Amino acid sequence: MGVPAIFKLVVYAFVTAIFTSYKEPLGAEEWGRRYTNLVSQSPIDPIPLFLPEHPAARGVYAHNNILQNLTKLGDGLLLFPEDLALDPTETFLYVTNEDGWIKKYYFADAKVENWTYVGGRPLGIALDNAHNVLVCEPIQGQLIQISKDTGAKTILTTEAEGVKFGLIDEVIVASDGLIYFTDATSKYPLATWWYDVLEARPHGRVMVYNPVTKSTKVLIKDLQFANGITLSKSEEHLIFCETTRARVNKHYLKGPKKGKTETFIDNLPGHPDNIHRNKAGDRFYFAMLGNRNALTDFVFQTPILKHLLAWDNKLWGLFSNMPYIARFLEVDEHGKPLRFYEDSTGKITGMITTAVPSDDGHIYIGGLRDNFVGRVKML
């Protein structure tokens, strides 16, 4: 099923209103002049992106309100927690906050501690093999290591192969100490991340940092908003997402397919963000931004609408503030969807960016519209 006729009429009316003088109909030459003017003022150079028809809300993807039963942790004390990491004993959570702080939430007494200030807007977080903390900080363009004992910070890397990080996003550490991480876009900063999504050109990368040689190498390039990343339990392959394309990929690090990239799961009902794996290695959890529908997919196909949204931040605000569906998906080690957790109206939580499974039978979630960490029982 394509874009509903009523939506096409609304789009036509909207574009006509933008380009019509209201005094008299526009001729082809004037339409062309106005379009050229719009393109010249637009900050992006978009291409049409045709995604597969978005999946219907049935079966595993049926709407539900499981997340409306979550428990709020640190309510009012955490600022838009984008990502989380459990300490090895699962006695507390590390939480990245919009105000530049890495905070700790302690389960025993519900205490929130301002642990270490990194500045900027920390995003992805993970622990290395010595249980020190690794943080992606995109505003300063840094991969940072923080001592678990002293909180002392060390900047590990700021560029790969001569290209600075534009939006360093998520990180994971292998058993051999190699650090894998994503740069969502090397073209646009965090402040205008949506320009990259609208443009739909491949500016994203997956990189690997070697702490012994202190070198950073590009592992995969030409990705469309490379975002969440994790490892399979065997560490044979990486699992990482391309947010713009609503898909998750698998990249082989070992074996006969070493160096090859395949699709792990495609045509998701939302745009995937951070990815986390359970300890058993047989479950992956993808947080998903928003809800794909006829409108969002049509915008991706239509450069003139992308120009309009990028040209006027107020229009983007209207588009991006449509009702948010909070959701994350659980899949098995083969990419088969198993369970869908959702707040279908955004009543309790919205714009989930991370879902972290624990050994205690719960999943901990963070998002860009919440001032708490959510805890929900595994199904």
From TrEMBL:
<keyword id="KW-0732">Signal</keyword>
<keyword id="KW-0597">Phosphoprotein</keyword>
<dbReference type="GO" id="GO:0012505">
    <property type="term" value="C:endomembrane system"/>
</dbReference>
<feature type="signal peptide">
    <location>
        <begin position="1"/>
        <end position="17"/>
    </location>
</feature>
<keyword id="KW-0325">Glycoprotein</keyword>
<dbReference type="Pfam" id="PF20067">
    <property type="entry name" value="SSL_N"/>
</dbReference>
<dbReference type="Pfam" id="PF03088">
    <property type="entry name" value="Str_synth"/>
</dbReference>
<keyword id="KW-0926">Vacuole</keyword>
<protein>
    <recommendedName>
        <fullName>Strictosidine synthase conserved region domain-containing protein</fullName>
    </recommendedName>
</protein>
<dbReference type="InterPro" id="IPR011042">
    <property type="entry name" value="6-blade_b-propeller_TolB-like"/>
</dbReference>
<comment type="similarity">
    <text>Belongs to the strictosidine synthase family.</text>
</comment>
<feature type="domain" description="Strictosidine synthase conserved region">
    <location>
        <begin position="170"/>
        <end position="256"/>
    </location>
</feature>
<dbReference type="GO" id="GO:0016787">
    <property type="term" value="F:hydrolase activity"/>
</dbReference>
<dbReference type="InterPro" id="IPR018119">
    <property type="entry name" value="Strictosidine_synth_cons-reg"/>
</dbReference>
<dbReference type="GO" id="GO:0005773">
    <property type="term" value="C:vacuole"/>
</dbReference>
